[in-house]
Amino acid sequence: MGMAENQKLISIPWDARMVEQAQTKAKKLGRINNSILKGGGNAAGYLGEEAVAAYIGAKITSCNKGSDKYDYDIVAKDGRRIEVKTKRRTVRPLDYYDVSVAKTSTHQRPDLYIFVSIHFENMTMKAGKRSYRGIKDISIVGQAEPEDYFARAKIWKSGEIDNRNGFKTHVDMYNLPISEIDPLDDSLLPQKQ
User: Fold this and answer.
1) What are phi and psi of 105, to 5 degrees?
2) How does pLDDT run across 100-122, given as a tens digit for each residue?
3) Backbone dihedral angles phi then psi of residue 71, each to the nearest 5 degrees
4) DSSP annotation string for 47-85
5) What's the whole-model pTM score?
């Protein structure tokens, strides 16, 4: 098990407008905790989409009407349909850290998953609720094609605890270490377009 720095990590730009957009979208879902800092997973997910879409020049489709909005989040310039999976962390992800796709998301039909990490200064727990402080960085940790991902991913059942980091899974999920996913496709990089 390598403790190596993740070589695939690409730090991507983000700004206050993206944070605002993400929080507005999350509020439309009508869930509580829509603030990215108040532990809002939906808001963090939308921020991941905003940052990736801006970085690769893709079109965001996640709030479009119709069934497509459930199948992928953004459409790349080359037409590939991409689902962005975002994790909140308080450390930079190492290559043995996992990326995840929840079992409830397996109906989605993207051409590609892009995995993102939002790095916060710290996280506190109050009455069982997470609260994050200060976004330090947003990074793309890698990508995977769904067929390949599910062929190699390990399923973690809800309630299982990962002994490496004490993380308790809240839903059934398919996990794969970052070391086993591909770096972001060169053709998606802004300078290659």
Assistant:
1) -100, 0
2) 998 888 888 899 999 999 999 88
3) -95, -25
4) HHHHHHHHHHTPEE-TT-SSGGGGT-SEE-TTS-EEEEE
5) 0.87
